[in-house]
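Apologies for my clumsy wording, but can you show me some protein sequence, whichever is easiest, together with the matching structure tokens, please?
=====
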Amino acid sequence: MANDLMANDEHCKTPVKHIAIGVAPMGTVAVGIVPMGVISIGVVPMGVVSIGVVAMGVINAAIVGMGLIAVGVNTMGVITAGPMSMGLIQLRSTTNPRYLAYPSREQAEEQARQLGCEGVHRMGDHYWMPCSEHPQ
């Protein structure tokens, strides 16, 4: 037990790297696969500012982003932007209504009529999109 505590204590004394690169790197700026740091860039970045494929942090720019501010294709957060964004405040990054999701079926049906397409389809558990098929 004492050896375990000493080992953990020694680990905590390791200086923080300013730039870390690799698999699960930790540093002020971390780049790689599952990077963790203030600024994280990579496949699954986790940090204050995260840039990558699936990002989790305060500010995210990713294909799938989750955080306070998230910009990407499929985003969740307080302020979001992207074709499939779910947030309290949604900044629309596209003007094509064919790619937008709506909170009610009725809104999606109205948009489908305006677009000249048939039907609507579900997007996730809470949203609807115009037209019976998802855009390619």
